[in-house]
């Protein structure tokens, strides 16, 4: 379906939500796999790639660099080619994986590559990766979107010191292309703890799968040796952060929801939702059919540090707003620089529907309060929109102003959500 731009009234659950859902593939795995497939020189492929805006933006970025890409549903094929091309323009949209992962690859192009994105993307932190690329030998015009990389077909590489406390994507972006640099790259982080470390672990694991030598034995240091990136066929597992929204529906309604294809082991931070739901009183049950969550009679508040799984914050905040005891979400100061300032946005929207919320420096404190319907702002942020849908399960009249922004990671979220709630 096309993007829904008029207000969407979130459907109310008439009873315990019960069902089985399949969620699209992980956007984090997908865009890493697409870039590695392209940097291998092809031919290579990615299967299970979700038909989302973030995927389309990465495909468009690779094509702008001269990479032959063919998309057939959830299968993306990378054709063989000889060298990245300059002269093109990359639209980053609002995809952090495009704006942080593609510039280090574009530095290998044989000419200039222009980058820009959505208005909000121009506000997101970019200086760290651009300053790092200059230190590694790249020529860059600008310190944030829009900017231009002036590639010369190669990059010296070497050692670089960065402060990645605003985003783990700064580290991942440099590591993904590092093997193609003349001397490889050694990234040293100097600053507050890096958020979402599982995302860096995901990057390292995928690089090793592609035959790249990565040494991460020293804290806050990652060394990638120069060498080829193996062309291979990547299979993408379900996006567990997206899955968390559907599991949360069971938690909020005392129902039972199964997510099909839940991996036995995963580097995705979204897997942490299981421990959060257990703390809230849910029963978590893995099985051959997938991962099942059974909701409790009374949902309990939680006290959680989501520093390494901060993308779960909107979902957990929605649960907390409807819990029977107070909640505290900690360790997520860096999400003020995500698609929107998610801490401020969540506090504002939950308060607007009657919630009792306090912003802290690194998170939220949420106390039980009777909620009522009303407008819910999505801020063009897919996770803010799905948080509103969760609140709307229990609160009639929650109207989300831009449910269409969920196309960023979940194609036809309204249709999937309505189908799950169908008797």
Short key terms for the protein model shown above:
cytoplasm; alpha/beta; 21% strand; 2 domains; EPSP_synthase; globular; four-stranded mixed sheet; UDP-n-acetylglucosamine1-carboxyvinyl-transferase, Chain; EC 2.5.1.19; 423 residues
Compose a concise summary of this entry.
The protein contains twelve helices and 23 strands. Helix 3 (about 95-105) packs parallel to helix 5 (about 170-180) and helix 9 (about 315-320) runs parallel beside helix 11. The protein is α/β, with parallel strands linked by helices and about 425 residues long.
Describe the structure.
- The protein has 423 residues and is an alpha/beta fold.
- The chain has two domains: 8-24 and 239-421, Enolpyruvate transferase domain (UDP-n-acetylglucosamine1-carboxyvinyl-transferase, Chain, Alpha-beta prism), CATH 3.65.10.10; 27-227, Alpha-beta prism (UDP-n-acetylglucosamine1-carboxyvinyl-transferase, Chain).
- Helix content is 31%, strand content 21%.
- It contains twelve helices and 23 strands.
- The chain has a four-stranded mixed β-sheet, covered by helices on one side. Strands 4-5-3-14 form a four-stranded mixed β-sheet, covered by helices on one side. The chain has a four-stranded mixed β-sheet with strand order 6-7-9-8.
- Helix 9 links the parallel strand 18 (303-305) and strand 19 (327-330).
- The longest helix has 14 residues, at 240-253.
- It starts with 7 loop residues before the first strand and ends with a helix.
- The model has no long low-confidence stretch (mean pLDDT 95).
């Amino acid at each position: 379906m096309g993007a829904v731009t008029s207000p969407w009234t979130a459907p109310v659950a008439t009873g315990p939500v019960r069902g089985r859902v399949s969620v699209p593939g992980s956007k984090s795995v997908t865009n890493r796999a697409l870039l590695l497939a392209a940097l291998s020189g092809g031919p290579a492929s990615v299967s299970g790639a979700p038909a989302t805006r973030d995927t389309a933006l990465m495909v468009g970025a690779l094509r702008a660099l001269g990479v032959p890409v063919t998309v057939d549903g959830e299968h993306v094929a990378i054709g063989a080619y000889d060298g990245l091309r300059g002269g093109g323009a990359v639209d980053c949209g609002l995809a952090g994986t495009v704006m942080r992962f593609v510039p280090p690859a574009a530095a290998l192009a044989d000419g200039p590559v222009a980058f820009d994105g959505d208005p909000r993307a121009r506000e997101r932190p970019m200086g760290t990766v651009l300053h790092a690329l200059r230190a590694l030998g790249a020529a860059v015009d600008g310190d944030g979107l829009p900017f231009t990389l002036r590639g010369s077909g190669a990059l010296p590489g070497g050692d670089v010191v960065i402060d990645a406390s605003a985003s783990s994507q700064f580290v991942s972006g440099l590591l993904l292309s590092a093997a193609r640099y003349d001397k490889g790259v050694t990234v040293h982080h100097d600053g507050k703890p890096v958020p979402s470390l599982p995302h860096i672990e995901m990057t390292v694991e995928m690089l090793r799968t592609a035959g790249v030598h990565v040494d991460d034995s020293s804290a806050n240091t990652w060394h990638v040796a120069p060498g080829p990136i193996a062309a291979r066929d990547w299979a993408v597992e379900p996006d567990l952060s997206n899955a968390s929204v559907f599991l949360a529906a069971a938690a909020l309604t005392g129902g039972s929801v199964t997510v099909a294809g839940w991996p036995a082991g995963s580097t995705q931070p979204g897997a942490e939702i299981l421990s959060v739901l257990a703390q809230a009183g849910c029963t978590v049950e893995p099985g051959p059919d997938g991962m099942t969550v059974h909701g409790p009679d009374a949902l309990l508040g939680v006290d959680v540090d989501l520093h390494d799984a901060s993308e779960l914050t909107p979902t957990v905040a929605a649960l907390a707003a409807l819990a029977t005891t107070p909640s505290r979400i900690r360790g997520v100061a860096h999400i003020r620089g995500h698609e929107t300032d998610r801490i401020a946005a969540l506090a504002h929207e939950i308060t607007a529907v009657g919630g009792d919320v306090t912003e802290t420096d690194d998170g939220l404190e949420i106390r039980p309060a009777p909620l009522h319907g009303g407008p819910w702002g999505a801020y063009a942020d897919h996770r803010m929109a799905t948080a509103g849908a969760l609140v709307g399960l229990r609160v009639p009249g929650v109207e989300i102003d831009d449910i269409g922004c969920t196309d960023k990671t979940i194609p036809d979220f309204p249709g999937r959500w309505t189908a799950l709630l169908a008797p």
